[in-house]
Design goal:
The protein is 0% helix and 64% strand. By secondary structure, it is an all-beta fold. It has one domain. Strands 1, 2, 8, 9 and 10 form a 5-stranded antiparallel sheet that branches. It has a 5-stranded antiparallel sheet with strand order 3-4-5-13-7, with no helix packed on it.
Length: 216
């Protein structure tokens, strides 16, 4: 794993928020889920966020969300969970979620699939009054067992990024443990003082939200 998402000391207009969405939450009597989000907010374009012409000058706010956690599937069970997240703002645009559905590789185990992703994006930021080109990066690889698949969907109309873990195979002997991985990216073009992100397991229907005060 390689993760470099915090700009150098002295870089302006970056915020980090960690949010524990679920901690060993039992869902539908067969899933036990822990899901965390590490949320990075970057003001980009080399424009100060209080500039009245922020949008016209090419300013933007990028939000990068790292998903981590674990999913246990009870023995003698199959099924899927769909993870969704978005920003509660019609200006938001979901532009990436990794890994992609087809980013799978075969392994020596016919029941297992290996996935890899490499998120990398250059943000034009400010360090003091000077411009800074900062490369944000997050890459990882992981394996899912028992014929478990990872599916990705960017729903632009609904302003959300979605990924699904689907265990097709039944583990009759014991609980199956999977790790939760992924990265989502959103972009906003209008300046603002705060951002509210929401997270949802669609089979559960419950919305968990967190508000990030940008303080800019």
């Amino acid at each position: 794993m390689k993760k470099s998402l915090t700009p150098p000391t002295g870089t302006l207009y970056h915020k980090l928020k960690r949010f524990n969405i679920y901690d060993e939450e039992v869902i539908a009597s067969k899933f036990t889920l822990t899901w965390q989000a590490e949320i990075h907010v970057y003001v980009t374009g080399g424009i100060k966020p209080d500039d009245e012409d922020f949008e016209a000058k090419g300013g933007a706010i990028h939000v990068v969300v790292c998903h981590t956690g674990s999913l246990a599937v009870a023995k003698n069970q199959t099924g899927d969970l769909t993870f969704s997240c978005g920003i509660d703002d019609v200006d938001s645009f979901p532009y990436v979620h990794l890994p992609l559905t087809d980013a799978t590789r075969t392994t020596g185990d016919p029941k297992a699939s290996s996935y890899a992703f490499d998120f990398k994006q250059t943000f034009q930021m400010l360090k003091g009054n000077d411009p800074l080109s900062y490369v944000a990066q997050y890459s990882d690889d992981f394996t899912l067992g028992y014929y478990t698949e990872y599916h990705t969907n960017l729903d632009v109309a609904a302003l959300k990024a979605t990924f699904r873990l689907y265990q097709r195979g039944t583990n009759a002997g014991s609980v199956t443990d999977h790790n939760v991985h992924g990265v989502s990216g959103f972009r906003l073009t209008k300046r603002r003082k705060q951002i509210t992100m929401w997270f949802c397991i669609e089979q559960k229907g419950e919305i968990k939200s967190v508000t990030i005060d940008l303080g800019f």
